[in-house]
Design goal:
23% strand, Alpha-Beta Plaits, four-stranded antiparallel sheet, alpha+beta, 278 residues, 3 domains, 7 helices, 35% helix, 8 strands
Length: 278
Amino acid sequence: MRWLILFMLLLNGGFFAWQYFANQDQELAQTSNHSGEYDPLTLLTELDDEQKKMLGIVPIGDPLAAPAEMPASELQPEAAKPEVMAKKVEEPVAAEPKPEPETMAVKPPTKEVAKPEPKVEPKPAAVCYTLGPVKTEKALRQVEARVKAMGLDIDKARRADKQESRHWLYIDGIKSDAEARQLLDRLKYKGFKDTQLIRKKSGIKLSVGLFSTKSGADNRLKRLQDAGFAPVMATVKVKKKQYWLDVKNPQGKKADEAILKSLIRGNKGAKVAKRDCK
């Protein structure tokens, strides 16, 4: 920094000297025009120290020396402006702004809300019934049609023959078919129309009644005897056809008893019975 200050001083002194001698040359030129004579040229090397000081020329060998006329404030021109230097030093060079990295919006994961499970109502237990017995297959089909129309399910239709005791009245000892035909005509004439001719290996018989009760058989026996016939009573085992219908109410509701009984109307002895569903 010191050498820089000295160089500036030297440069200023040289410029001052140049201006000074340039003015002298102009004055000489002007005077020469009038007098025709020139002043003698003096080199810098011919000047003594006093003249050099007056001109502000500092010898190179004495860099710390300063001309007497130069104020001390001008010896350090840069130091006289501390605020300017400080300002230059303090001002940092603005760095180019770096592009901010692009940020991608991250969608937060959506939390699935657990849906409540639908409430499942328990299926009602089915209620099952047995209808019957009915005596013929035709009667069974009629009951089946009524059950379906009501909305009940049919599990199965079944036949269960039953062995029963009966009191049978018949006329025995007939020798031929001609004699059997004569007896039939006489019985019809007397009002006995429920008769039937039976041919077996043991002979020809004429049935005049089959009764489930003894009292019914006795009454018929007396009437035949009063009409002049000689019937015989015997107890026999017969198979009775019976048809049953197992039904189910899938809605699990107990059906009205009157409605269930209407399904078997017209069938004597038929009943409605609740049963276990299997």
